[in-house]
Amino acid sequence: MNWSGLESLLSGVNKYSTAFGRIWLSMVFVFRVLVFVVAAQRVWGDESKDFVCNTRQPGCTNICYDHIFPISHIRLWALQLIFVTCPSLIVVAHVKFREGKDAKYTASHHGSHLYANPGKKRGGLWWTYLLSLVFKAGFDAAFLYILFRIYDGYDLPKLSKCSLDPCPNTVDCFISRPTEKKIFMLFMVVSSALCIFMCILEMLYLIGKRVAKLLRVRHENERILFAEQHELTEMAPPRSQYHWVDPTLDDNQRSLTRREKIKEGSVTTAL
Question: What pLDDT is stored for residue 269 in this prediction?
């Protein structure tokens, strides 16, 4: 499978993601895709060939292998990575839709734009981004549950018992390198759990930021409404009513000047 094409396609998601989203994408490609391509495929490459049961009964080994490994780890992880990364493509598609809509609006409205920034998480794009996080965490959790149910708590026993037809009796079956495979399986499980944790943190960050903004807008609206309903009277006269008084005048001259101003119908305030 060509994982480099998927990596180049998802690299454009970084410019629409938060800091948590960038960390999540780095974890997916470094701790999951890279480990899957470089090491895990080689470790599980011999699982069918080197699966051995202590019987020569035709078909018994194949039946026991199908019972112990209902689905290959490699194929299950490949499906998991595809399902987990697909929601990010929905965000990219939504942004491209906005850009196309904005281009049509600009062409028909003489250069004015419908969106100041089509990639900004506002309105419908915010909901699309949040739903993509829910889907990513949900797919990871679902595959972890499937792996847990199939392999009895992420365990790979060194010896397995099988008594299915056409086996003549209960036979012992052995897988190659069980300890190494178990280590890789636990590593992939922990990586998936960390990715789920990062998705939850990003969801909390987006919701918290949105709630804080709504509360700030609500507080501002209440403040404006209070100011409109309780108009304050002027605590001091306008600056036009202030008159400069010469500080060198004595008290009698100041009183005379004040009486003259009162006669003129104005009030003099000393500065």
Answer: 41
